[in-house]
Amino acid sequence: MADEVVQHDVLEAFCKDPTICTVRPLGLGNINDTYLVRSATHSFVLQRINSDVFPEPLRVIENFHKITNHLSKKRGEVGHQLQLAVPELTLENLLFYCDNKGSFWRGQSYLPHKSCQVLAGPDQARRVGRALATFHLLVGDLDAKEILDPLPGFHNLPSYLEEYDRENQGIETVVGEEFRFCLAAIDRYRQKAATLEKAKHAGILTLQPIHGDPKVDNFLFSDQGEVIGLLDLDTVAMGLVHYDLGDCLRSCCNRLGETGVAVPPITFDMNFCQALLDGYFSGPEKMLSQEQRAYIFDGVLLICFELGVRFFTDHLRGNLYFKVQQNGDNLLRAVNQFRLADDIAEREQEIRGLAISSGFV
Questions:
Q1: For the residues of 266-335, what is the DSSP string, one character each?
Q2: Which residues contact 337 (CB under 8 A, 6 or more apart)?
Q3: What is the rounded CA–CA span in Å between residue 256 and residue 222?
Q4: Phi, psi values for residue 107, rounded to 5°
Q5: 26-73: per-residue pLDDT in tens?
Q6: Contact 306, 149 (CB under 8 A)
Q7: Domains in the chain and their CATH numbers?
Q8: Which of 49, 120, 129, 299 could form a disulfide with 242 if both were Cys (CB 3.0 to 4.6 A apart)?
Q9: Distance in angstroms (rounded) separating the CA atoms of residues 86 and 109
Q10: 22 phi, psi to nearest 5 deg
Q11: Residue 249: Cβ-neighbour burial (10 angstroms; 0-12, 13-18, 19+)
Q12: Could you count the other beta carbons within 10 Å of the beta carbon of residue 168?
């Protein structure tokens, strides 16, 4: 029996006999609607692309096709054993189906796996770091002209601050400890916001294809805890590796996870940080120069700050971007990210030291 939120015509586009398919929600994503479709002989992922977030869904769909084609040709390179989903075509051999409401649906192969919200230990963090490095090496020679930017302005923190400023007009007097904490955090870190962009314009940091969202729950794990793959290529675009590495560190080194519920004091685990960086720099390839490594701290601090700004801004404008169960969810998410940013800031010298020394014997 199909889930009632997936229209019959959508299933008909992908399944020969929708009446024998089961459909259930899949994953904990905050953006798209994702389902696992099962029949007696076949399973695949069905996803409705959120056009409020991705204003040009066809860019996402076409990028995914180009990227997976590119990666399929790279088997065997740099120890490539990452599992990556590929498009699941409609019965008419199309990459997508557009329903009568104008929503775009696409299919992907289903990769059986375990997902993690919190890593088991430093050894697993090391494997995640190596998997991210492998992904960067595999996509590094993608033709930039072939990749259409799915989210112009993504990871542009100064731009997100401009959005926040527009939404925050006249709201400074609102009472509430969590609200005031977010206002103060944004004022505290605002001056650092353009650090990576300035380094890019100075030619110190350079653009290359990046994942865009390599948080811990986008990695695939085996039953034994090995990293076997990477999900969610919707945000692959030209960007700074530091955004990817920073986001991966931010997510993996937060031992309390990112559930959005009230938690004890949030800390950034330095053992996990060292292990992940050692994994990232463990190969024979030269991933970053010493000068570029010096910006890894800025990457992890600013991606954390960026997420806090985005969650708080979405709270101010009525939760239009990130999915919520109730009003206040995005406010709590913002508080958690700003608390994590504060802990990261206190560990600046330690993180900078690891960024320079990791991977060297």
A1: --B-HHHHHHHHHHHT-SSS--S-HHHHTTHHHHHHHHHHHHHHHHHHHHHTTS-SS--SSTTHHHHHHH
A2: 304, 305, 307, 308, 311
A3: 22
A4: -110, 150
A5: 876 667 889 999 987 789 999 999 888 888 999 999 999 999 888 888
A6: no
A7: 8-109 (3.30.200), 122-357 (3.90.1200.10)
A8: 299
A9: 6
A10: -110, 145
A11: buried
A12: 17
- The torsion region of residue 155 among left (phi > 0), alpha (psi -120 to 50) and beta comes to left
Contacts of residue 361, defined as CB under 8 A and 6 or more positions apart, other chains included, come to none
At 143, list the tokens. 């033709």
User: Of the given ranges (112-121, 198-207, 229-238, 348-357), which has the lowest mean pLDDT?
Assistant: 112-121
Instruction: Look at residues 110, 86, 63 and name the one whose alpha carbon lies nearest to residue 220.
Output: 110
Whole-angstrom Cα distance, residue 83 to residue 133? 14
**Inter-axis angle of helices 296-316 and 177-189, nearest 10:** 140
Beta-carbon contacts of residue 258 (< 8 Å; ≥ 6 apart): 117, 215, 251, 333, 336
Provide the whole-model pTM: 0.89
**What DSSP line would sit under 124-173, residue for residue?**
HHHHHHHHHHHHHHHHTTS-GGG---SSTTTT-HHHHHHHHHHHTTT-TT
Question: pLDDT tens digit string along 134-178?
Answer: 999 999 888 888 888 888 888 889 999 999 999 988 665 667 889
